[in-house]
Write a structure and sequence with these properties.
The protein has a three-stranded mixed sheet. Strands 1-4 form a two-stranded antiparallel sheet. It is flat and about 75 Å long. It has 337 residues and is of the alpha+beta class. The chain is built from 13 helices and 13 strands.
Length: 337
């Protein structure tokens, strides 16, 4: 099992390869430090008073700041706060304008900035502000934990690290400098996510921005990889089969195909049998519930009847564009991908 949180973070990091910095959010406790640095950069004459201006901004937003564990460090929020770089820039602009005019900061103007111009990752994955729920952003995307389609046994990698200098000495023993064990497993995984396009439009406030974000998410979710133990296992794999269904009824996960683990069998690997079970389950859902997608697209490394039944075959390079062609005329309706 791979947690949805780890894969969402991997997708967020992948967004940096596809988007400008202004379209990607920053999630940190050190929001006060970021805002103070932005104020000092935009208005060097206000650098000394920047901490006071920052304190007033977050006070009006009803977000508590407290002293960090590290002595003499800048104030921090009590939890990770998700802000877009454009929101930080606008808050700095508002604070600078108030300082130079001698007028008090407007609480409504501060809250308005928190609620507008969201970064793509904030619009997709949402934001929780414990101190002020009015600033919460409902996620337009839901991501399930990736699970193996079959029984997977954990294995153990026993390792030793040799002390280079010690090994060169004839007087020293040849023992290891350290030793340990890493637990790991390898499996064929089923991953699932759904995007509410209407909510994505609402969060971003722009149809074209939402369609662009959808394309970026498709690329990021499919191509990203969590980085835990990456140097040890080089887990640089790509999906064997990708299925995207565009619906106007409700999202449907096909995880039920693997309620019973895919069994071992000679002649075929877990991937082929997993795709076969997925196709059979999708057909069963359609037959019994009558819920059919408006369109389905499939990217697959192998040809099979199961793959053909899951949707129209397309190259991955064309996938985001084909999805956009289908949903573009329907933006504003209750579409889910």
């Amino acid at each position: 099992r791979v947690s949805s949180q780890s894969w969402k973070r991997a997708a967020r990091l992948y967004f940096n390869n596809l988007l400008d910095a202004s379209d990607v959010g920053v999630r940190t406790k050190r929001v006060a430090e970021l805002l103070a640095a932005q104020i000092a950069e935009d208005a060097p004459d206000l650098a000394e008073s920047a901490p006071d201006l920052v304190g007033e901004v977050f006070k009006l937003a009803k977000i508590k700041l407290s002293a960090p564990r590290k002595k003499d460090g800048p104030l921090e929020s009590g939890y990770l706060l998700f802000l877009s770089t454009s929101q930080i820039a606008r808050l700095a602009e508002l604070a600078i304008a108030a300082a130079r005019s001698g007028e008090a900061l407007d609480a409504k103007a501060v809250k308005k900035i928190f609620k507008e111009a969201h970064a793509v990752d904030i619009a997709l994955f949402g934001r929780m502000v414990a101190d002020n729920t009015d600033l919460n952003i409902d996620a337009a995307c839901q991501v399930a934990h990736a699970i193996s389609t079959h029984a997977a046994q954990n294995e153990y990698d026993f390792f030793t690290a040799v002390d280079d200098e010690k090994s060169r000495s004839e007087e020293e023993d040849a023992g290891a400098g350290m030793m340990g064990t890493v637990e790991f497993s390898s499996a064929t995984m089923y991953r699932y996510a759904t995007v509410n396009l209407d909510m994505l439009v609402e969060n971003l406030g722009d149809d074209d921005a939402a369609l662009r974000a959808l394309e970026v998410f498709i690329k990021g979710f499919c191509l990203s990889m969590p980085t835990g133990k990456q140097n040890t296992f080089a887990n640089r794999t790509l999906p064997e089969t990708i299925v995207i269904s565009i619906r106007d009824d409700q999202p449907i996960s096909l995880v039920g195909a693997f309620e019973e683990p895919v069994p071992e069998a000679s002649g075929t690997g877990y991937v082929d049998r997993s795709v076969g079970e997925l196709a059979r389950y999708a057909e069963t859902i359609e037959k019994n519930y009558g819920l059919r997608p408006l369109s389905s697209f499939v990217v697959a490394l192998k040809d099979s009847d199961a793959v053909s039944s899951l949707g129209e075959r397309v190259p991955f390079a064309d996938l985001p564009g084909r999805v956009r062609q289908v949903v573009d005329p329907r933006v504003g309706r209750e579409e889910r991908v």
